[in-house]
Amino acid sequence: MTVDIKHHPLAFMYSAFTPVITINGYRQQGRWGVNVLPLPPGNHHLRIHIPYLLPSEIGHADLTVPVQPGQQVALEYRAPMVVFMGGAFGVGPQKWPGAAFTYVLLGVAGVLLVLMLLLAVAAAAA
Length: 126
Description:
Layout: E1 2-6, E2 20-23, E3 26-29, E4 33-36, E5 42-51, E6 57-67, E7 74-78, E8 88-90, H1 99-125
């Protein structure tokens, strides 16, 4: 089984933290990118999260995966763009959790920046 663990480029600060993969209750360190998990046939409960500052763990996502003999399972985990949201975990491609909120917030900040620049130009011209 492989799990591709990703974070959005706008969430670059996640790179400083190592993802944690829990398989059937046993924690292990993951890494950003493709993680190879040799699992025997059967049902396996996987949980992924990212250790963080506040809160101490973010992006929780759980998935129960049935593995058949000889089967190759490829999964994808995407960390949230907003720290208070869960991650997206399943057969890829997954959507970025919190993307709409982040893009709206960046749009509002951009509009405010343009308005401030226009006001500064108007004040300088007066």
